[in-house]
Amino acid sequence: MGDQALERKAEQNRELKERILRLKKERNAIILAHYYQRDEIQEIADFRGDSFLLAQKAATTDADVIVFCGVHFMGESAKILAPGKTVVIPDERAGCPMADMVNVEGLRALKRQHPGATVVAYINTSADVKAETDICCTSANAVNVVNSVESDEVIWVPDKNLGDYVSKFTNKKMIIWEGYCNTHDMLSVRDVMEMKAQYPNAKFVVHPECRPEVVKLGDFVGSTTAILKYCRESDHKEFIVGTEDGVGYQLRVDSPDKEFHFASKYLVCPNMKVNNLKKVARCLETLSPQIHVPESVAAKAIQSLERMLQVK
Ligand code: 13P
Ligand code: SF4
């Protein structure tokens, strides 16, 4: 983009941000943004967070309207936890391919094969799947959640990579679904080795949604929040980052003096990026698209989410 085009864009964003702030007041709304959102959305959010923190915020807010800037399952979880609120999302097309990799029929079939197993579902699942689940988890609490259940056998859906990671920290027998995150799963050992050769002093931090052989190379492995904390508190000045590129916004806010190199230019979730400021303003104005979850589904799904929120 040339200088003039950049200036025009900055001016447009300023106007949109003002409009959003005005509408937010009028609607008594709160804006929740996942760390994978575009920088300009994270900038105007009331809360930025990982999926766990944002679920907690949705469950406890006293706003009338929740604008959920993330992907569809996150908006759904917010609606389930805060049924009395209006929950809107900037773009209905923001789905999660990993969440779509498990469905109710498949999960029920697995439950029939393992009747004694507890179902632990990553929060990256649809409301229907959550309704078939005993307890949810996020990447921030997955190990604690699995270790908190009474049974010795766990059905784990849908992320096979996170499942593999968790299985190393538990004695439970884990029956792991074959899903994965298209974005994290594309990071290869070769990508990481090339970056390590280019930046030999950098620490490699990696999200457990990456493949096991990539996770193995990590100097630090953790959820989005854990990666942020590690980088903030570390004495090291340079990091290779193995997770979605939106996390760069908070990394730079926390540690402007440190250098962050993303392990691949493809670590971008296209679903997270369909949201933009224009769509945030529009959904606040029109209060649509809204998230609706049928009551019969929500009544069951809320139990799996609330159980998760209680795990320390
Ligand atoms: P969290 O670190 O927030 O659990 O996010 C992982 C992810 O891929 C969300 O879509
Ligand atoms: Fe789904 Fe992966 Fe995108 Fe998260 S980063 S929303 S898991 S596709």
Short descriptors:
single chain; 312 residues; alpha/beta; Rossmann fold; 15 helices; binds 1,3-dihydroxyacetonephosphate; binds iron/sulfur cluster
Give an overview of the whole structure.
The chain is an alpha/beta fold and 312 residues long. The protein folds into 3 domains: 107 residues, Rossmann fold; 99 residues, 3-Layer(aba) Sandwich (Rossmann fold); 76 residues, Rossmann fold. Helix content is 46%, strand content 16%. Helix 1 packs parallel to helix 14. It starts with a helix and ends with a helix. 1,3-dihydroxyacetonephosphate binds next to loops.
How confident overall, as mean pLDDT? 96
Largest sheet: 4 strands, parallel
What gyration radius follows from the Cα positions, in whole Å?
Answer: 20 Å
Overall form: globular
Extract low-pLDDT stretches.
Answer: none
**Based on the structure given, which CATH architecture of the largest domain is correct?**
3-Layer(aba) Sandwich
Per DSSP, what share of the residues sits in E-state strands of 2 or more residues?
Answer: 15-25%
Q: How many β strands by DSSP?
A: 12
CATH topology of the largest domain: Rossmann fold
